[in-house]
């Protein structure tokens, strides 16, 4: 049975306020607005950082949001015990939430950097923040009804309206303001400070007559302490991030930049090989990148290759191999992140590795999302090279969908070919062969092969949480052509290669077929079938 509205009020009488009741009511609603915005920022920060550290953004968002909603219900029930002392309870609650929520991203990143595991911490913060957020509305309901007991139904409506509008503002502020300007760690600390100030101002000023001198003194001291802690953490956040980055990537971090697309980290020393990390995942290692890029490019070049399209590959390494063919007249590189291309043009170690590919006048760079770019007809191209992140990463699944390959087919000239990096074959055969099934569903014939001798492993980023014994030791590729099965081989008179020969290519193709599981369905935009 639903309680009557008048029963929602705590038993105390009207409270003494330093302002008129109408003004006090609006101040409470303003606090609801601010607290709701802060609460949603905490949630989104956990989702964003967990997706970066652990991977698979769909899973991380589902875990964080479902745990928080569950914990909010627990918090609402627990708040019943505090309603008799709503002002003190709300003051303590907001201080706790400001400290826990403000430092959540910092602690989550620290646990990942030094312990190599962030899942347990993520669950703990999701539950703790959810409980604290869930307890806010019942206490605020008690406080606003202390101001005026009239129109209880309207009070409930006003509280929830302020809560929902605040959540909207927080949800928009995080991706468009806080994250690009301040970053994940600083924005979390700043949000905690705003949360503490809003809660402290409401209790220590508007409801100060509800507090005993002792309670007022303790709350003032606690507010000051929390704000000092958050301020010190904000001042030291750059040093913390540098130390954490060293713990993750090693002592030889040369470049670390956050772009509007991803985090880019370059490591390496004069005595060690260059390594390129994108969003914490190792993408290029000077130890073995030649094995990957030779296997990616040269089988596709066995045929007409006058015009070549590279989707991704902003580091210039696939272009380096393509430009070794004198008959190539034009190379188009479609790379979403301009910062990757800038580094490939200017970083001494990376330019040496790609042999200054971007100095070649045959190259044209387009900064666009490859999927969106393909929606407008281009070409025709004799060779299309898909050099994009593994399909197991949630953000990349659209580039391994039936729709994507259908768009790519429109750019391929008669007799042309497309080559796709489909992830490691031995450790993730289901993902690899799902890519093959998707290509076939889009009307391609396929030839499968892999490159072995992979020396770089999951040494940093999300991959640190994986068992090194299960780290991939090969790369899987698919050579395809619309309406026909392309022959797998190398061009007679091809440039000399360090790791690929016609014999090794034929052996790799035979080994790949032995791993094919039966009955795999293609992946589409509305039904992705890859898992991280």
Verbal overview:
S-methyl-5'-thioadenosine binds at residues 262, 335. InterPro entries: MFS_trans_sf, PABS, PABS_CS, SAM-dependent_MTases_sf, Spermi_synthase. The chain crosses the membrane at residues 26-54, 60-79, 91-114, 120-144, 156-179, 185-206, 218-237. This protein is of the alpha/beta class and 532 residues long. It has 2 domains: 13-248, Growth Hormone, Chain: A (Up-down Bundle); 288-513, Rossmann fold (3-Layer(aba) Sandwich), CATH 3.40.50. 52% of the residues lie in helices and 13% in strands. It has helices at residues 21-54, 57-78, 86-115, 119-147, 152-206, 213-249, 289-297, 317-322, 338-346, 348-353, 370-374, 402-409, 429-441, 502-513; strands at 253-258, 263-267, 275-278, 281-285, 307-312, 330-334, 363-366, 381-387, 412-421, 444-452, 474-482. The strands form 2 sheets. The protein has a 7-stranded mixed β-sheet. A 4-stranded antiparallel β-sheet has the order 1-2-3-4, with helices on one face. Strand 8, helix 12 (402-409) and strand 9 form a beta-alpha-beta unit. The two termini are 46 Å apart. The model is unreliable at 1-11 and 458-469 (pLDDT under 50).
